Amino acid sequence: MDYGGILLIAIVASITGGTLRNLFLEERPIWLAQPWYFLAILLAVLITIGLRITKPVGKVVLGLDTLGLAVATVSGVQFALDNAAPSYAALILGVLSAVAGGLLRDVLCQVEPVLLHRETIGTACAVGALVYVLIEPTALPNEIVALISGAVIILVRTISIARGWNLPKVK
Amino acid sequence: MDYGGILLIAIVASITGGTLRNLFLEERPIWLAQPWYFLAILLAVLITIGLRITKPVGKVVLGLDTLGLAVATVSGVQFALDNAAPSYAALILGVLSAVAGGLLRDVLCQVEPVLLHRETIGTACAVGALVYVLIEPTALPNEIVALISGAVIILVRTISIARGWNLPKVK
Amino acid sequence: MDYGGILLIAIVASITGGTLRNLFLEERPIWLAQPWYFLAILLAVLITIGLRITKPVGKVVLGLDTLGLAVATVSGVQFALDNAAPSYAALILGVLSAVAGGLLRDVLCQVEPVLLHRETIGTACAVGALVYVLIEPTALPNEIVALISGAVIILVRTISIARGWNLPKVK
């Protein structure tokens, strides 16, 4: 894949989840009004290429990826609730925000989608989103709700990777 | 594929067509306000896994699939007309409602899309949708228009499967 | 692939880019109100099949494809600016209008996406779109801005094909 293709895949993987979430809620995608969105992606691509990071994904990248999933899920649930989505729909939109980009990335790269076959990405995000919508109606301030839910996502994914947990597969 | 992946594919296959139709018509997806949508999908996945239905698709499943195509097409055409789409666009949105989910399912599962290579799914839905927009301007009540169009879809698909009809392929 | 599949791929390749652009700008897809859109696609498919054009892509088709990219990019940028998108977003929406259809076509046909691996489709469109948003604020009439930007796209792609230019690939 050439450098243009890499940049395009990076953009698609970054903005797909939030873009779908906003379309479903009848809002304009956030990147339409926020140029820093693309500057951040461009910077990340330049750093990755500049450092010639082509080794297999290591602990740092995996940690950043988990953090990204947590942020995407939590902000997705929050945005959905702020836009009059019922709790169950906010849960689904939160998970969608986090996983849709990686799914489309894998499809465009013609590799087996990680989301469907390995790891517990979807499970971790779903559990965190569930915690969010369950504790959101309490008196807890929004920041605390977000921190707890995000921590749950990071915990579930980190533990499941460390212990090699997977959802059962069809026999 | 693990159980989470199966649930995700079931959701994607079920809601993609109607979701796209609504986005194109500038309406919120129906599942955003209707939780029973997901309960029905979850139930269907649990039944399928519980009964360990992993045999090749049989007559009952094929019949249910054809019924689903008919319902999706007819309700898609109806919804489009109700939302100020012209007849030709309602025809296309009806077919889209019925076939988009299966197409995305096949892409995510990395198999050859059934829609593009085999069977007469698209043709059956297109013929039924055409019948709908042709007889809808008559004095016939909506229910009868829907029943006739749905019956046409079921007939075309059932006969074409029974007789092994296919659209001609490029030589 | 049967004739129905070919028609469907032709439709998807033609309308995806503009449809996404409109959804992101909260506008209805243009084909919802313009039936000639589908008539043109149908005519193109009939001509292609009628003439049994199954030879490898030749100079005429490549020229038409480049012209199509230029028209899609320029009209995409213009439409985005007309709908209150900032310049950087109009640039991205212009490129998206031009390349999304071909990308989805390749995914549905299960072939390696041309956009990501070969040629300079994306680069040519991005350069042309950049020229558009740079010279649009000047006193030049819109038609001239569109012609210059379109010519840039055609030039960049034609030269890069003639000279075998490619973006560098990751080693």
From TrEMBL, chains A, B, C:
Main location: membrane
PANTHER family, per database record: INNER MEMBRANE PROTEIN, UPF0126 INNER MEMBRANE PROTEIN YADS-RELATED
Bilayer-spanning residue ranges: 7-24, 36-53, 60-81, 87-108, 120-138, 144-165
Entry GO terms, CC: plasma membrane
InterPro entries assigned: Gly_transporter
Keyword set, alphabetical order: Cell membrane, Membrane, Transmembrane, Transmembrane helix
Presence of the UniProt keyword Ligase in the record: no
Protein name: Unannotated protein
Domain Glycine transporter, chain residue ranges per copy: 1-51, 64-135
Pfam families, per database record: Gly_transporter (PF03458)
Subcellular location as annotated: Cell membrane
Membrane topology field: Multi-pass membrane protein
